[in-house]
């Protein structure tokens, strides 16, 4: 229960992180032509691929002004993907926080939809956990700072945007690290806004990642504020142990941590 309490503590502690973010107005999202992004990524060269997942492929690119960016190209264009694309643009246009990945521009064509983000050089927290090195030693200071920054971003999403935002997919692969290992929470494709004082969001389809998914949400289809906090708690376990909860090489000890989270949730 101490791990669960610590995750809530860091979540609440995050309110210190969002104060300065309100001083700057949120910029409007720019629109780009496909030909501009095709040129920026060298025709979506496979050698520029940064990563890929269920939503699409992310390429490294350089805009005409020399700015280095990450370009996410959605794999398939259908009604669901377009809705997810528009949802992410709407959500990110409301956000201005130093620990949330910044959306710079977008492109919606007949065959393709693309989102262009600031480029974050050190990959994901998941990749770091897979390959820790001497440059980033596993001291307590670094994991706790990362946890506080993620908590600060979650607190900001819940309390400082025009409408509260549920991220709905907090996990180590959606937390990026810049050149100074500062965090950027990413991937708002499944995120949703809720009216103030709304306690939960009822869905017809459970979305999320096994291992990070709040079991109560899985069983009831009701996503609440503490569902994001639950997922954050799983990430916190990964930071404290130095291993991923969901992995083909996960040790039995870390698997037990995941089981403990399920037991805690059952005691509510």
TrEMBL record:
It is a single-pass type I membrane protein. It is found in: Membrane. Transmembrane segments: none annotated. GO terms for cellular component: plasma membrane. GO terms for biological process: cell surface receptor signaling pathway. Residues 44-268 form the Protein kinase domain. Its main location: membrane. This is Wall-associated receptor kinase-like 11. The gene is WAKL11_2.
